[in-house]
Each structure stands twice: as C-alpha cells, then as structure tokens.
Amino acid sequence: MGYALVTVGTTEFVELIAAVSEKEPLSKLAQLGYEKVYIQHGAGPAPKIPNVPIEVASFDYMRGNPWKTLYENADLIISHAGAGSCLEALENRRRLLVVINESLMDNHQIELACALKECNYLEYCYPQTLTESLDSITKAELDNFEPGDPHQINHELRRLFCL
C-alpha cells in the first residue's frame, strides 16, 4: 500500500497531531500496510516522532502542485473536519477519516462529519480513539461522493445579479 496523509489545513489542531504522532497509531498504520505517513501540522508545532516501523515526514504547509499531487494520491487522508479539507478529499475519491476537534466553540465540525458519515462518505473519530478508528476506516465500504455541478448556481447568480 502507499501512504497516509494527515492534514489540519491552515489551522492548529495540536490534539490530532499529538495523537497521530504516538507510537501506537503509527505502528497500526504500518501494520495495515502503509509505507509512509505525511503529517501536515499547519500552524501548530512540529510533531516529535517516536521510533516506529514506518517512514514519517512532517511539514507545516505545502502549496501548489506538490500539495495537489500528495493529496490526490494518498491512500488514506486523516483530516480535521474543515469543510474545505473534507470536500477536497471526497472530490478526489480518497478514503477519509475525519478527526473531530472538540476544543472548538460552536463546533460545526461534528455536524459536518455526522452528515457526511450518514451518507456513507467517511468515518470520523476523536483524537483519543484514532488508533481503533484506523481499523474501521480500512475495512469500511464507503460510497463515492459525487460533486455538484457549479454551472447551475453560476447561472442563477448571473440571472439574479443581471450579469
């Protein structure tokens, strides 16, 4: 198998980065057949990686074609529940495990994750249940996400604004 990509987008989600950087989940990823893990830690501190049987690379941000290539070719994406990150993964038909950030006020992330799970597009968990959830996302039979057609809303906006 190829690689897993962990992403927090432009945010700081220290709990996810700390959870995924522990020996147990990294060893679980190796056991599941992943050869490498890329950890995009965003605005938070770089993770301290223990001695594990899997190659791990971390970085704060990556933009442009390198990021697009990394994202489009990941066998598994472990992500915060930001709408942009979720939709990017699903539109690229990537296997997606969303990790809920419980420290957010007015937490819309759980609502988005629940709605997408209800449609059978992804699995979600919390930082403290990450290792167990790696098994379930690997075994899950998920449905493909079909992106909408932006031409319809573009047409309506042009009509509305007389463009």
UniProtKB/TrEMBL annotation:
The keyword Disulfide bond does not apply. Keywords: Endoplasmic reticulum, Glycosyltransferase, Transferase. Residues 5-148 form the Glycosyl transferase family 28 C-terminal domain. It is found in: Endoplasmic reticulum. It comes from the Eukaryota. InterPro entries: Alg13-like, Glyco_trans_28_C. SUPFAM superfamilies: UDP-Glycosyltransferase/glycogen phosphorylase (SSF53756). GO terms for molecular function: N-acetylglucosaminyldiphosphodolichol N-acetylglucosaminyltransferase activity. One of its GO terms (biological process) is dolichol-linked oligosaccharide biosynthetic process. GO terms for cellular component: endoplasmic reticulum. Its EC number is 2.4.1.141. Its main location: endoplasmic reticulum. Pfam families: Glyco_tran_28_C. The keyword GTP-binding does not apply. Belongs to the glycosyltransferase 28 family. This is UDP-N-acetylglucosamine transferase subunit ALG13. The lineage of its organism: Eukaryota, Metazoa, Chordata, Tunicata, Appendicularia.
